RNA sequence: GGCGGCGUAGCCAAGUGGCAAGGCAAGGGACUGCAAAUCCCUGAUUCAGCGGUUCGAAUCCGCUCGCCGCCUCCA
């Protein structure tokens, strides 16, 4: 498949370096607060990319995502609350995994905490000092940016440009204003670890380098995150990793576009802020997923209630088809279908092809969703016309729909469990009601339908007879 | 100031050199006791504007207008 690589600014053919397993690293949450709706985008997009590779490309993915459990924001939050940093981190880490579960996102293969790898970070910093890429000043350690000649290759900046840009605060301790912190001397009351430079804690960009290397080796296949991380975060990661090893840190860099609200990036200061869990109180998980995948991942995505409501209708169209077909064919055996059914089933492959083509072209989920919608339309058309055994062919369409939805996390809601007794009782009720309708005793017939609706069972009178379904969760 | 991106029907949104996907909304029709679901029909001679390259451009180049992101913590 082809993926747009920020490093080369082009779409490139992607294959895992060993031809088998994808080594993928995605920047994870800083657990000082709940995820907001912007944070959700990389989680859903790269989670779906991972599942697509596993389910359709045949590449198992080792997916590593860090949990940043020590940093300035966490320390500030802990002090506000009169808690320890560890308590704050534990609470929001738990919330994060609950959110993944709610959304049906497969958890990362590894979710290392930064604080579990402090010794690795110390080794990294030490290695950089030994090679002349870093220096210690007053208990802090800084990376010597000018020593790494390829600095700026990811973000397309040159050191000269950056210096003239000069919004970077000068520091007496740094040799150069562009140098960035690898290790911070501890201030009173802050979490701290012993190091060759005294007590302190790791600075910014060290954790991703150390964690990714620990689980995935020196060269990653894919490193992904929001495009606001390109500079300085990812640029600095490359500098550290490549200065130390001399090897390519990551072959591909993937960046998702920002979530906006009314066209502007969401932020607390603008007041256009919402938590992920709040959206999930208003919309079901598959609607939320559909919304996030309804725009190409590299473009900005504008959040609004209207957009979510539209996603809900779009996703419901497919789910209605699935659930109605399953209701219609409930109890029916595996029938062989005739010419019409066979022809219909043979034609289904074109939707899968369109889907694969879109997904393979820089993970174009929008095109993939279009293919899914076309599959839904075509199936509905067939459903309206088909009679007899050919209707069994609908099973094939539904099964394809589920398969295409699987990497995206769509259409996976478990089939409603129906016990044999319920099945028989419903058949009885429907039979009696049909007789009432035949006698035009609609009042009683409608009462049965209304009462069933109250207990969560929906009756639909279709040309093929009455079907019943449990109401959508 | 530097770097990057975007502007496609009422709304959302693919496509990035060869007759403009898909969804939502709207109108008409079919089906129907009523519901529900579904089907059919109706939409951009046109892709912010102006020039240029080309047999051919929404797609390439230049300019103009408008919007956004990064350059400081940020998904």
Notes on the protein architecture:
The protein has 473 residues and is an alpha/beta fold. The chain has three domains: 16-282, HUPs (Rossmann fold, 3-Layer(aba) Sandwich), CATH 3.40.50; 316-408, Anticodon-binding domain of a subclass of class I aminoacyl-tRNA synthetases (Four Helix Bundle (Hemerythrin (Met), subunit A)); 420-470, no CATH class. Helix content is 47%, strand content 15%. It contains 16 helices and 15 strands. The chain has a four-stranded parallel β-sheet, sandwiched between helices. The protein has a four-stranded antiparallel β-sheet with strand order 5-6-7-8, covered by helices on one side. A three-stranded mixed β-sheet has the order 12-11-13. Strand 9, helix 7 (230-245) and strand 10 form a beta-alpha-beta unit. The chain is elongated and about 95 Å long. The two termini are 36 Å apart. The chain binds one RNA strand of 75 nucleotides through helix 1, helix 5, helix 7, strand 12 and helix 10.
């Amino acid at each position: 498949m082809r993926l747009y690589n920020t490093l080369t600014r082009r779409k490139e053919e992607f294959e895992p370096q060993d031809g088998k397993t994808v080594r993928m690293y995605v920047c994870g949450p800083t657990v000082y607060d709940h995820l907001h709706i912007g944070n959700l985008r990389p989680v859903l997009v790269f989670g779906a990319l991972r599942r697509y590779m596993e389910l359709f490309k045949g590449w198992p993915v080792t997916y590593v995502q860090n949990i940043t459990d020590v940093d300035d924001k966490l320390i500030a939050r802990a002090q506000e609350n009169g808690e320890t940093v560890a308590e704050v981190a534990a609470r929001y880490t738990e919330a994060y995994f609950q959110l993944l579960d709610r959304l049906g996102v497969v958890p990362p293969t590894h979710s290392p905490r930064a604080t579990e790898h402090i010794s690795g970070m110390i080794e990294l910093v030490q290695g950089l000092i030994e090679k002349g890429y870093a220096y210690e000043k007053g208990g802090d350690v800084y990376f010597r940016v000018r020593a790494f000649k390829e600095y700026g290759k990811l973000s397309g900046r040159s050191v000269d440009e950056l210096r003239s840009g000069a919004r970077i605060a000068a520091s007496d301790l740094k040799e150069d204003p562009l140098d960035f912190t690898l290790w911070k001397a501890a201030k009173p009351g802050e979490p701290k670890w012993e190091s060759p430079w005294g007590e302190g804690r790791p600075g910014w960009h060290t954790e991703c380098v150390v964690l990714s290397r620990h689980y995935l080796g020196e060269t990653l296949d894919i490193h992904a995150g929001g495009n606001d991380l390109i500079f300085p975060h990812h640029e600095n990661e490359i500098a550290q990793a490549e200065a130390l090893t001399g090897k390519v840190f990551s072959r591909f860099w993937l960046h998702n576009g920002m979530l906006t609200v009314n066209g502007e990036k969401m932020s607390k200061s603008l007041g256009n802020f919402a938590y992920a869990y709040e959206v999930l109180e208003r919309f079901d998980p598959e609607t939320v997923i559909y919304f996030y995948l309804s725009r190409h991942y590299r473009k900005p995505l504008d959040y609004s209630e209207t957009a979510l409501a539209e996603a809900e209708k779009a996703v419901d169209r497919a789910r209605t088809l699935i659930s109605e077909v399953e209701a219609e064919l409930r109890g029916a055996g595996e029938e062989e279908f005739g010419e019409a059914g066979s022809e219909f089933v043979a034609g289904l492959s074109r939707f899968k092809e369109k889907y694969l083509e879109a997904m393979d072209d820089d993970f174009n989920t929008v095109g993939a969703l279009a293919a899914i919608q076309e599959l839904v339309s075509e199936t509905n058309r067939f459903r309206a016309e088909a009679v007899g055994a050919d209707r069994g062919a609908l099973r094939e369409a539904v099964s394809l729909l589920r398969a295409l939805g699987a990497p995206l996390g769509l259409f996976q809601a478990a089939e409603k469990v129906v016990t044999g007794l319920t099945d028989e009782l419903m058949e009885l009720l429907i039979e009696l009601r049909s007789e009432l309708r035949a006698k035009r005793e609609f009042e009683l017939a409608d009462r049965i339908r209304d009462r069933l609706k109250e207990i969560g069972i929906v009756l639909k009178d279709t040309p093929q007879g009455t079907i019943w379904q449990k109401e959508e969760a």
